[in-house]
Amino acid sequence: MRRPTIADLAKTAGVSVATVDRVLSGRLKVREETSRKVFDAAEKIGFHGTNLIRQRLFAELPEYRLGFILRKERHTFYQSFAAELEHAVHGLRDYRIRLDVRFAQTSDPAEMVDLLNGFSGKVHAIGATGPDHHDVTSVITALKEKGIPTFALLSDFAQGVREAYIGTNNIKVGRTAAWMISRFSPRPGKVLLFLGGHRFQGHALRETGFRSYMREYAPQFEVMDALVNLETRGLTYEALLGALARHDDMVGVYCAGGGMEGAIAALEEEGASRGIVCLVNELTPDSRKALLDGTVTAVLHTPLRELCTDLISTMISTVEHGMAETPGQRFLPPQIWISENL
């Protein structure tokens, strides 16, 4: 396949070759509207000089550096999260945004502290997902004093200090999961929850919402003690196999955090004939396949595109206008996926 030429770019943009040459060279001023047309066309056809056009077009725009801490770099969900951040920035026309995305490898608060400290003096604002811990709160307080706001994503932390929480309402997510299991299960019985860790406030709130719904509306179901799986496949797999062997009356499983791959594998191996209702969070290739083959009943998914668009806009506004006097929160409704609406 041949590489697009300047003539191809001019034709796609609906301008003359001379105009494209002026945009590329920067020797003569070109109207911003025309430059944007050429830039959009360059992106569309994959023109080799797209980055040069971007630099000339956005050279005088304000530039902000935004840092992000996500988890598990090789996990599909967090890869999608990083890609949606790039997508949100790519759509901006009035700013130059540089992203610095880093990934935590563990749930250890000390790692979160190190990652946060690593952004000090290097970014204008931070968005992070991670555990709630007093050491994390301390470093976020120090960053705030330096004028760097921190936004909690997916699971809240450092309330009263962080700038805002952006994600789903985890109490309602937990209640929704309980409603589904109580309605979809063909009979009453025991239900098992998996939590990523005790320091993830989002997981604790999902458990709280789940249990409160069951106590009020479905007391015939017994919610067993939640198991901590550290969001790992192996621990979830072994723990669920053991629970299935011990409890013939188990009717439901809810993975409130990561590690759903292990739950799926265990149910495929031992639970296929028992009609167990299984709910997980986040639509990935694994959960999609499990939905289609009936191993998973439903997926509660974070609307990443909406979250990232809202987040980037809010971060820029905070940098430009200052931090809020009262830290807030922004709830996004989860997407509910079943086999029939994939």
Descriptive report:
Helix 3 packs antiparallel against helix 4 (50-58), helix 5 packs across helix 13 and helix 8 packs across helix 9. The chain has 13 helices and 13 strands. The chain has helices at residues 6-13, 17-25, 32-45, 50-58, 76-90, 109-118, 134-145, 170-184, 201-217, 233-246, 260-271, 285-293, 304-321; strands at residues 63-71, 96-104, 125-128, 150-153, 164-167, 190-195, 222-223, 227-228, 250-255, 277-281, 298-301, 328-331, 335-337. The protein has three domains: 6-58, no CATH class; 63-168 and 303-332, Response regulator (Rossmann fold, 3-Layer(aba) Sandwich), CATH 3.40.50.2300; 170-301, Response regulator (Rossmann fold), CATH 3.40.50.2300. Strands 6, 7, 8, 9, 10, 11 and 13 form a seven-stranded mixed sheet that branches. A six-stranded parallel sheet has the order 2-1-3-4-5-12, sandwiched between helices. Strand 10, helix 12 (285-293) and strand 11 (298-301) form a beta-alpha-beta unit. The model has no long low-confidence stretch (mean pLDDT 92).
Keyword list:
alpha/beta; Rossmann fold; 342 residues; seven-stranded mixed sheet; 3 domains; 13 helices
By CATH reckoning, the class of the largest domain would read: Alpha Beta
Provide the CATH architecture of the largest domain.
3-Layer(aba) Sandwich
CATH-defined fold name of the largest domain: Rossmann fold
Coarse shape = globular
Structural class by sheet pairing and helices: alpha/beta
The rounded distance between the terminal residues' Cα atoms is 34 Å
Radius of gyration: 24 Å
Mean pLDDT rating: 92
Binned, the helix content reads 40-55%
CATH superfamily of the largest domain: Response regulator
Total strands: the figure is 13
Strand content: 15-25%
Q: SSE order, as H and E?
A: HHHHEHEHEHEEHEHEEHEHEHEHEE
Low-confidence stretches: none
